[in-house]
Design brief:
alpha+beta; nine-stranded mixed beta sheet; six-stranded mixed beta sheet; 9 helices; 36% strand
Length: 385
């Protein structure tokens, strides 16, 4: 895929990223309402940070993000993925932009090896800001960059007060995706329907519908539908419990092996699909989640980022993520951004087709079909919520 990384290393990285995605989902699934995030964005931002981690800090990050390759072997596969996505963007009628940046305090010297690695493998842009004299102006500049790279869908990634005089480095990843369905829905078939938040509570929503050929599998407990985007390069995969209140059981059983098994069962067939139009966005403070997964040192004065600078005075002060998705008859628009702040210690179908009626909570993901990379993941529990 146009990189120094081989196929085995790439598969290893993608599987690790997917394992992290599912483990993170388990940490956020107890949150009320809708969930949406980009595991790829989060993994990329932290891989950039991981390049500067050493000793126990490095080991903890590797365990949580499933970086099972040797530390210096982690980065070429990320480059391979980014190159793959850039080729898709050039040759396809959809948008998939992924960009990275390092925002460095203007007089703070980071090791050239760290900067060179981030430029080489992550195509990271380097910017100098004065965090000491103008922390608020610096915050607005970074937020402006994120807004620009996500077509104004991700605003205010860094909240007021998140940059201060002790900030020395902010690493950012932004991802923007917009694509038409391979089989678009006719607006004439969109009707108002009930969406059951639980067996006793429902809201009225706009429900799209069509009969078309999709990847599909079912058992007595749940259904899986794969809706490809134009050219089949990417797909949305939807997991729907047969019971209106059965999503939590489905979520509980979700791990990397189970996901592989479920996806391998998908077969193309005609399906009568009912699917809601929806928009949702999410803010996630990653620090608490990553601590609970096992990254402890990186957020304290025990952090060792001596691969960034030799004095061991840096630690992660903030890790923030924001994501947005809009699904309609034409397709999907999605965006996400992650910031890691580092500071000093201080056709007519036959009649008999299955029906896939997404009128109650479901889990979904958006993936790249060539590599199986999970770009976005979420849950719709309450349309409009």
């Amino acid at each position: 895929m146009g990189s120094q990384a081989g196929d085995i290393e790439l598969r290893n990285l993608v599987r690790g990223n997917s394992a992290f995605a599912l483990e993170m989902y388990h940490k956020v699934r107890d949150m009320e309402g809708n969930i949406f995030f980009s595991p790829y964005s989060i993994s990329t931002a932290f891989a950039m940070t991981y390049a500067g981690a050493r000793c126990e800090t490095q080991k903890q990050m590797a365990r949580v993000f499933h970086f099972s390759l040797q530390p210096d072997e982690v980065h070429p596969p990320f480059d391979a993925l980014q190159s793959h996505f850039q080729k898709l963007q050039k040759n396809s009628p959809f948008r998939l932009n992924i960009v990275n940046a390092l925002w460095i305090h203007e007089d703070y010297e980071l090791l050239r090896t760290f900067l060179k690695l981030n430029r080489k493998y992550y195509q990271a842009q380097l910017f100098n800001l004065d965090f000491y004299k103008d922390p608020e102006g610096s915050r607005l500049r970074i937020n402006g960059w994120v807004e620009d790279k996500t077509e104004d869908k991700i605003k205010d990634l860094l909240p007021s007060g998140s940059i201060d005089t002790l900030t020395r480095l902010v690493l950012t990843n932004a991802i923007y995706f917009k694509a038409e369905w391979k089989n678009t829905f006719s607006v004439n078939t969109t009707k108002e329907h009930d969406f059951w938040i639980n067996p006793d509570e429902n809201v009225r929503i706009e429900m799209m519908s069509q009969k078309a050929r999709f990847g599909y599998w079912e058992n007595e407990v749940f259904q899986i539908l794969e809706m490809p985007y134009i050219k089949n390069d990417l797909s949305m995969v939807v997991f729907l419990s047969r019971k209106k209140d059965g999503l939590s059981d489905l979520e509980m059983n979700l791990d990397i092996k189970t996901l592989d098994d479920w996806l391998s069962n998908l077969e193309p067939q005609y399906v009568h699909v009912y699917f809601p139009k929806f928009k949702t966005s999410q803010n996630i403070d990653l620090k608490t989640i990553l601590r609970s997964l096992g990254i402890s040192d990186a957020f304290t004065d025990r952090a060792d980022f001596s691969g960034m600078e030799p004095k061991k005075e840096l630690y992660i002060t903030d890790a923030l993520h924001k994501a947005y998705i809009d699904v309609d008859e034409i397709g999907t628009e999605a965006a996400a951004a992650t910031a890691v702040s580092v500071g000093v210690t201080s056709i007519l179908p036959p009649e008999d087709v299955p029906e896939f009626r997404a009128d109650h909570p479901f889990l979904f993901l958006i993936k790249d079909n060539a590599t199986e990379s999970i770009l976005f993941m979420g849950r719709l529990s309450r349309p409009g919520g």
